[in-house]
Amino acid sequence: MRIMGLDVGTKTVGIAISDGLGWTAQGIETIKINEEEGLFGLERIEELTKEYEVHEFVVGYPKNMNNTIGPRGQASEQYAESLREKFGFPVVLWDERLTTMAAERVLIEADVSRKKRKSVIDKMAAVMILQGYLDSKKI
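The structure corresponding to this sequence follows.
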């Protein structure tokens, strides 16, 4: 059984999956969503959940630097609740402060073009969110 990490935005959701032992996170894909129209990509997440035998979700939780919860944090809470309702699996909200910036920095250092960075940044952030969670479980 594996764990799925999600970096939820207003237009995309980056997806990462743990290996079978729960040691490492791998980026799978970025799915398009439309928050305004209520299209959250749950059908594709369901397909991936079955394909990878997922039993738990880790959703990035974008807190403000002062630890308060803003509109994006509230949106992540709602997304997590949608996952709980649809799948019945445990859902962990994981502090994701600065993960997108860290992912961007890694991609820049790897000399990835701006166009290519845009297409993989959410998937990379999902990897960082999930890997942080997996690492915390090893302590």
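The chain has a mean pLDDT of 87.
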